[in-house]
Amino acid sequence: MRTEREMIDLILGVAKADERIRAVTMEGSRANPAAPKDKYQDYDISFYVTDIAPFCNNPAWVVEQFGHPLMMQMPEAMRWPDGGGHFSYMMIYPDGVRLDLTLLPPRQYTDMAEPSVVLLDKDGLLPPLPSPSDAVYHIKPPAPLYYYSCCNNFWWCLNNVAKGIARDELPYAMNMLNAVVRFELHCMIEWYIGTQHGFHLSTGKDGKYFKHYLPSELYTQYTATYSDSNYENLWTAVLTMCDLFHTLALSVAEHFGFAYRQEEEDGMRAYLRMVREDAL
Length: 280
Prior knowledge:
This protein is an alpha+beta fold. The protein has 8 helices and 6 strands, in the order αββαββββαααααα.
């Protein structure tokens, strides 16, 4: 796999040789000093060009500049295009390097909110950059209503999981558990981590850093909330998720002085028992 220095040299070489490319920035985890470093990090690169049209839906140009990838995706040329004035090429190369290259006009630079590093600015047109930081991704303390809404939706939507299991509707049950209910669990996990470590950190996309911040016993419990397609195992995962959410929600409520509505949990647990017993 090519090194970061080799990739940056390649990227800058392409940009310097093309007068249409006026500036280059790098975003994402490689621009984020707080992100763990490893060889699998993507290269999220933006080329700011004088005219975007020649670069749009032109994979031949990308192949000529960067070589043949194992696979390429062009999101703005797919089923639901939403370029917003830019065009992207996402590529994985035979050595394992992934390059996500976005072409856009210089005026769009001010729209960037994530950590960003200027690699090249031929005209000095890009605005001054703050020091790279992942502050935009930091956990935000919940307002009382947001905390209550999280708790209420977590418990309420479990009724759909139970009905999906009872009706032998595995895709529906799994989606409700892992998309809807798990979203609320992840919110509560983040708040709990914030109360333990401070609200100046990020748990990463989809909680990928949970393991770094949760006590080992709670992370082990969290891993047990994932199930295979066996319904008994799925019920076990559901109830484990309930127990974990209860523990975290009470801790978060105590930290912020919020009221935890135990009666809502008790009501849904009663409903879950009823549905499960009906299926026995």
